[in-house]
Amino acid sequence: MLKGKKIALYVTGGIAVYKVVDLMREFIKNGAEVRVAMTESAAEFVSPLTFQVLSKHQVYIDTFMEDNPRVVNHIHFADWADFSLIAPLTANTLAKLAHGLADNFVTSALLATRSPIFAIPAMNTHMYDNQVTKENRDLLTKRDIYMMEPDTGFLAEGYSGKGRFPEKERIIEEFEGFMRNHITDLPLKGKKVIVTAGGTKERIDPVRYITNDSSGKTGHAIAEAAWNKGADVVLITASSIPVPDRIQKVAVESAKEMHQAVLEHFETADSLIMSAAVSDYTPKTVAENKMKKTDSLSLEFEKNPDILKDMGSRKRADQCLVGFAAETEHIIEYAQSKLKEKNADMIVANDVGQKDRGFNVDNNEVTFITHTSEPIPIRLKKKTEIADDIVSWIVDFFKNN
Ligand SMILES: Cc1cc2nc3c(=O)[nH]c(=O)nc-3n(C[C@H](O)[C@H](O)[C@H](O)COP(=O)(O)O)c2cc1C
User: Omega into 88 within 30° of 0, i.e. cis?
Assistant: First the structure.
C-alpha cells in the first residue's frame, strides 16, 4: 500500500520525535517517498539533519527560507503530497490546526494541503484529557482529519496514562487502512477474494500429526497483495504466521476443515487462490489417546477431499480460480494437465525440489499456466513480489472477463 506513495511527514515538538525516525525508515523501506517538515520545537528533540539524511531530502522548518524562486516552499510541499502524516502531534499544534493558524511552515502547509491528513497526537495524559484538547480534537475530526488514538502506558513523566506514541506496527496498519479508504480506483474494490495458505495437518493422535514443508508465506503474501488492491480478503490458513486485523482469518488444521471453510465462502467470492499445500491423504482413524510406543507402526490412510477440483466443478464463469502445482519433475506438463482437470483459470507451477526456492524460504521462481497464453515464466524473486504478480494477473482476468 505504501509503495510509490508520496508522504509529507510533519513532525512537531513532543518527546516521541525520536520514535518517528524509525517510523519514517519503515515507510521508506516499504517503498514510500517521504519528505519532512518540522516545527522549531521538534528540532530541539532530534536534529533535522537526521531526517534529511534518512529521507534523502531537505527538511523544511522556516517558512521564509525561500531557496527556490520558482515555487513557494510550503505550498509546493503541501501540493506534492499524496498523504500527510503528523507524527507526533503536540497539544500546541493541534490547537493551532483546530483554529486555522498558519504561523510556521508546518501549520501553513497543513492549512494549504488537499491531501488526506492522518494525525498521531502524543502528549502527557492530563494534556490529552484536558477539555480544550478534547474539543480541538473533535473539531479536527469533524473536518476529516484522522485522529489516531494514542497508546495507554508508561509516560515520559514517570507515570501511566493515555497519550503515548503508538507502536510503529499499529501506526502502519492503521495508516494503510486510512490510505486504502481514500484511494477510490483500486482495481479489486468490492471484490471478495479467498486465499488458502499453509500445510494442512492430519492428526494421528492428540499430540501427533502429519504435515508438509509449506510455511504459508506465499498465501499470506497473496492475501496482503489482494488487500492492497482493494479486495475484501478471507484467509483460510493452516499456518501460524500472524494475520493483521484487516484480513479476515479462518484458522484451520486439516484438509477437511479447510474444505469446509472454503465451501462456506466460495459462493459469495469473486476469486479463490488455493495456495495451501493440502495433504492428499489423512489417517483413516485418529487415536483418541496418545499412542503408546510399539516395535513397529503401520497407519492406514484414506484420500482427502480434492478442494481445488471440487471448487472447479462449482465455479461460475464470473469467478476466477487459481491453483498451485508444487512438483519436483515434469513441472509444466503436470501443471497443464492440472489446469484442465481442475477447471482452474490459472495454475502457478513451482519446482519444490530446489533448496533456494519454494517451500519454507522467502523466494520462489514459478510459471503461470493459463488457457489464454503460452506459459509465463516468473523469474526467481521474493514471494511478496510473486504474490503481487498473481494478484495483477487476477486484476487482468476481471478486466477481460
Ligand atoms: C521535554 C519536553 C517534552 C515535551 N513533550 C511533549 C509531548 O510529548 N507532547 C506535547 O504536546 N508537548 C510536549 N512538550 C511541549 C511542547 O514542546 C511545546 O508545547 C511546544 O510549544 C510545541 O511546539 P510545536 O507544537 O510547535 O512543535 C514537551 C516539552 C518538553 C520541554
Answer: yes
Domain 192-400 belongs to what topology?
Answer: Rossmann fold (3.40.50)
Once rounded to an integer, what is the mean pLDDT over residues 209-232? 95
The length of the chain in residues reads 401
Rounded CA separation 29/25 (Å): 6
| Cα(133) to centroid(ligand 1), Å | 14
Domain with CATH 3.40.50.10300 in the chain: 192-400
Q: What is the pLDDT, as a whole number, of residue 359?
A: 65
CATH architecture of 6-182: 3-Layer(aba) Sandwich (3.40)
Helix (H, G, I), strand (E, B) or coil at 146: strand
Instruction: Indicate the top mutation candidate among 89, 92, 108, 137 to test ligand 1's pocket, ranked by most ligand atoms within 8 A of CB.
Output: 92
Cβ–ligand 1 distance for 279 under 6 Å, the answer: no
Residue 50 CA to ligand 1 centre (angstroms): 19
pLDDT reading at 57 higher than 80? yes
- Residue 266's pLDDT is 98
